[in-house]
Give the backbone structure.
Amino acid sequence: MLNTILITGATGLVGKALVKECLSKGFNIHYLTTSKSKISSKKNYKGFYWNPQLDQIDPKCFEGVSTVINLAGSSIAQRWTKVSKSTILSSRKNALELLHSTIETHKFPIRHVISASAIGIYPDSKTRYYKEDFQGTDASFLRTVVRSWEGALKSFKSLGVLTTALRIGIVLDANEGALPKISGPIKGYIGSALGSGEQWQSWIHIDDLVSIFLFILESDIEGVFNAVAPNPVQQKDFVKSVAKVLKRPLFFPNVPEIVLNFALGEMSAIVLESQRVSAQKIQNLGFEYKYHELDAALNHLL
Ligand SMILES: NC(=O)c1ccc[n+]([C@@H]2O[C@H](COP(=O)([O-])OP(=O)(O)OC[C@H]3O[C@@H](n4cnc5c(N)ncnc54)[C@H](OP(=O)(O)O)[C@@H]3O)[C@@H](O)[C@H]2O)c1
């Protein structure tokens, strides 16, 4: 019988790439979606409806499942209003809590829950080099969200389930996410660095991220891991690399922080914060990156 994996958030940027690779490796996929229109049933790929805000889930999604991969969460790349902030936080917490209570109630024999987390758990710093055992924090919105997300994941330990949190960096994909937002203006000759440009950006190529999920899944590895490429870059160098690959000049001075704060509000933290994050822990376990350097990743994607 095929190994069945239950994936939440399977219809998003990371989920689509992960599903494709899992299917090519012969896994059977069940996925949970909050959108009834996204439910489909193809060979080895079956959708189920859930609504974590309303505690609704179809328990049949767990049939034959031993591993759950949790990617669900309302996007942080939206203006942070009181309402959207509450949804960003609760969508992550409620999703894990609903999975937990359903597994507990029905005594489903789940072995491993692997969940997305984010490098936003690390406080903004231009000098620190973050490893997974870093303990400091602050009261910012991003830190609050990610701490609560990882806290909800830890609660699965009480069910005797292995838990793994992947603290994901900026995911580079050709069509979605951060890269098209950065490369679009540069292609149109209006790109420039953001803020001081000194902030560290810990990126990862989508293919390497998918490989990390499969590495963790297939080796049954438990714990907290950074999912970033081994060579983070400063934002000004990120922009320069994109311009070089696209063969475009950079005419304009950096967009000042004050302009970004005005245009994006509190959410400007996403582009202005600095997190230089280490990939050493997962490498020490034998994971091999395909894209170590930003230029190679950009050459492949752009
Ligand atoms: N992309 C990045 O650079 C990055 C970096 C760090 C961390 N992450 C984290 O990794 C995970 C996957 O990232 P992604 O880029 O693939 O995200 P994405 O494209 O925004 O997809 C997330 C998925 O979550 C589901 N979702 C949306 N709102 C929801 C809600 N209110 N309740 C429950 N589910 C909801 C959606 O699936 P349905 O419509 O099918 O329900 C959506 O397809 C996210 O949790 C994200 O925060 C991503």
